[in-house]
Amino acid sequence: MSVRSAWAGQWIGVAGESVTLVLPAEERARAVALWPIIDDGAGLVAVLDALLVDGLSRLDAFVLVETDGDRARVLVRGEAVVTAHTPEGQVRVAAPGRLWAEDSFTGLVALVAELPGEVAGDPLERTVLRPGLARVGGLTWGRVPEQPSAPVPTREVPPARTAAPVAPPAPVAPPAPVAPPASRAKTSPPAYEEERLETVPLSAVPLAPDWQEEITDHLPLEEGGLSVLGFGVSHEEPADVPEALATPTHRAVAMLVFNHGATLPVDGPLLIGRGPTARAGSPGARLVTVPSPHQEVSGTHVEIRPGEGIDLGTAVVTDLGSTNGTVVAQPGLSSQELRPGSPVSLLPGAVIDLGDGVTIEVRRP
């Protein structure tokens, strides 16, 4: 299982070399805090200790997977489901209504993690997931069989018996010997054999999606890359940007297409409104005036800027206390009215409605 891939979504994947942690979107601060531990090569137990340092009751859902060749250990809490594809059939690791479910496998062909909630991308459009942070809608390890050689009924994995990740229970006398399935991990696994699984040639799969930024040592933690996914969006070339506005302060993370004709890159902060003025906290911001014949758009209505920290690589919009509000329609999601002062990450294809007929479409740069 040498290839780990993902498709677009709203969950947060924290991917190390062997350990992968997946958290709900609202846990992004926790994901950023755990990245250095996972990046340093911590194992599953160490990551689990750090994950639950504040208590199990404070985290409703997660998926934690550690892989080593064709072996894997899987923990699931919440409504997510991990399916293990083995030579004998499929095994589901799920814990609906339980504390969590845990299982270990050997001789694996593939793993598939299915995550609840809105999916922003096509599960068939998977891209290799490198170490770092990324928004994901699901993950796979290895090559999922297109069609099993013989139909095998799916087996449910019983939930873990321990209520929390404390010291391991005292050894229990083993039951009468029973030949275990080949896919289950034994208490004392045999010495590793040379991995015989056929791996996917990396040349056959994109090495890095444009929505995932590899975290590098020279960046501070808050600038480590967690990018919003941008599958299935328009690749039209934007209209020419006026020369006076064409000096970027950052690499453009998005293009803004205004319905009145202008097209601008998001390569720094932009203050948009009927008559925008410079504000503290947005040094060097570009002032963008939009028409508002009925005065429904506020003078300085919204700010759009490149995201930072966990939103690095995407555009972020913030309503600046506008009189009539701002509505954002994200692809595949319900429209939402922005809360003043609360930034929202923008997916490619999102449409921002300022009122008075003024809309802004977000496109890939």
TrEMBL record:
InterPro entries: FHA_dom (IPR000253), SMAD_FHA_dom_sf (IPR008984). It comes from the Bacteria. This is FHA domain-containing protein. It comes from Nocardioides jishulii. Residues 270-333 form the FHA domain. Keywords: Phosphoprotein. Residues 145-190 are annotated as: Disordered. It holds the Pfam family FHA. Residues 166-180 have a biased composition (Pro residues).
